[in-house]
Amino acid sequence: MGELIDKLRVAESFSKAASTYDSVAALQRNIGHQLLEMLSSHSQDSQSGHTEPASILDLGCGTGYFTSVLRDRYPDRPLAGLDIASGMLAYARTTRALDNDVTWICGDAESLPLKNQSYSLVFSSLAIQWCENSSMLFAEMSRVLSRDGIACIATLGPQTLCELRDAWSRIDDYQHVNQFQSLAQLCKALPDDLELIETECEMRVLHYPQLKELTCELKGIGAHNMNAGQAKGLTGPARVKAFKAAYELFRTSEGLLPASYEVYYLILRKR
């Protein structure tokens, strides 16, 4: 399969968005906190008895927001934050008041620069949707997890920003919106030694008075179209006007424009 997601663009886009990300990432924070609640419920319901993880990896740590939350939750455990965007890591290092036990690592989730069985908990909120090769991603996740280790993941499904995709589809046949994998595709990519022990799915719909607020928010978090072969030079005034008119068809009776996010929550255990 040819590369569908431009990893260099992913890294550059999120690096540039480091200073603005936290100010517009309310949805991302909400989803990450829900993922932590799901992890807590799993830990409390565990039949085998709950023990705190020996070491934690925040995979796709971004600005370090949840790295900091994980440090508060597990204050005495070795903790690492890994991200492909060097700009995000630089921001995290300088803005998060974390102790020296936190290790910041620049790396690709599909080729982790980490030792085998080095972490007992992998936390990853809204990061793995930028990985094209899910089989490689999960194989790497399994490799760095210790025996009975847990991977706690939130990611986005293909219905994410369906209104945006639909509006553009009325204008041309190019791919203007990131396309993410389905839950079935993700589950099919799991190796035999990673067991899916809990999953939840939900649709979250945000609303905006004007389309510009949505597009500015997407720019603020760095979530541009990362697909290779995307349309270039096709966003002139006439096309943009037509696109805005197409999106207006979604305006609700309350006078707001919706933007939908399909969210998957997964808890995996290393067999």
Number of helices: 10
Question: Which range best describes the helical content: under 10%, 10-25%, 25-40%, 40-55%, 55-70% or over 70%?
Answer: 25-40%
Major sheet: arrangement of strands:
3-2-1-4-5-7-6
Structural class: alpha/beta
CATH class of the domain at 7-158 and 179-205 and 262-270: Alpha Beta
Percent in strands: 15-25%
**Mean pLDDT, all residues:** 90
What is the CATH superfamily label of the domain at 7-158 and 179-205 and 262-270? Vaccinia Virus protein VP39
SSE pattern = HHHEHEHEEHEHHEHHE
What is the number of beta strands? Answer: 7
User: Which term fits the overall shape?
Assistant: globular
CATH architecture of the domain at 7-158 and 179-205 and 262-270: 3-Layer(aba) Sandwich
Which sheet architecture does the biggest sheet show? 7 strands, mixed
Low-confidence stretches: none
Keywords: Biotin biosynthesis, Methyltransferase, S-adenosyl-L-methionine, Transferase
InterPro entries: BioC (IPR011814), Malonyl-ACP_OMT (IPR050602), Methyltransf_11 (IPR013216), SAM-dependent_MTases_sf (IPR029063)
GO molecular function: carboxyl-O-methyltransferase activity; malonyl-CoA methyltransferase activity; S-adenosylmethionine-dependent methyltransferase activity
Protein name: Malonyl-[acyl-carrier protein] O-methyltransferase
